[in-house]
Amino acid sequence: MHTSSVTEEKKEPNTSTEQFESNISEESEMRGVHAKNGIPTDTICIAIPKKCLITVEMGQATEIGQIILRSDLDLDAPKHIFLMIFLLWDLKANVDKSFFKPYYDILPKTLSNIPVFWNDDELESLKGSYLLTQISDRIDAITDDYYAICQVAPKLQDIATLEEFKWARMCVCSRNFGLQIDGHRTSALVPHADMLNHHRPRETKWSFDDELQAFTITT
Predict the structure, then answer these.
(1) 108, 147, 160, 176 from 156: Cα distances, Å
(2) Domains in the chain and their CATH numbers?
(3) What phi and psi values does residue 21 have, to the nearest 5 degrees?
């Protein structure tokens, strides 16, 4: 079946959507996805085809990614960086034509709930906490990575400001999945799956199924 967008592509393998419902907890005000009926153990309840994943290798394949690979930069989180590079490059280069546009459209435009974006008044509420040091260190690491990459790949400045780079970093670090795809360890952004949270202890597990060539969530 020919498909033209990530939204269409991901529907075909996921044959179980009718088994789930979305609701909002009055107690926590959090949205959740719950099974309508019991699902047997080891059942694949969600499958996202490989074509819909944004992987580290896709970021490495970009012009900026290739420059980073050839450099001796000591980056804070290299796998995250390559995911960020693809995300930012694709948003800038392909805009509305991107295969991943439906995914980009649902990413949060702002991340004001994450402390690295808090203003001085908001940070004041953490006065006396070691969290302030951790927040400052994280901001410094992101800033250092941005300017270090700009030194070897000036085109980064054409696709992202420091604030946009920081936004991409937080999107990636809060959403990426560690996976082994065809025997290779990597990380990926997985549309749809990254909107699902789980209880502790978890009742599902995720992996990449080499036979299905899909990211799967299994009970």
Answers:
(1) 22, 9, 6, 22
(2) 1-53+190-219 (no CATH), 70-174 (3.90.1410.10)
(3) -140, 150
What string of DSSP letters covers 13-82? T-TTGGGEEEEE-TTT--EEEEESS---TT-EEEEEEGGG-EEHHHHHTSHHHHHHHHS----S-HHHHH
Q: How far is residue 15 CA from its own chain's centroid?
A: 23
Q: What is d(CA 62, CA 151) in angstroms, rounded to the nearest whole number?
A: 17
Contact 172, 83 (CB under 8 A): yes
Tokens 């946009």 correspond to: 164
pLDDT digit string (tens) for 107-147? 999 899 899 999 999 999 999 999 999 999 999 999 999 99
**Each residue's pLDDT tens digit, 136-193:** 999 999 999 999 999 999 999 999 999 999 999 999 999 999 999 999 999 999 998 8
Phi-psi region at 89: left, alpha or beta (left = phi > 0; alpha = psi -120 to 50): alpha
Instruction: Give the three-class secondary structure for 178.
Output: strand
Q: Residue 37: CB partners within 8 Å, gap ≥ 6?
A: 19
Q: Indicate the residue type of 163.
A: E
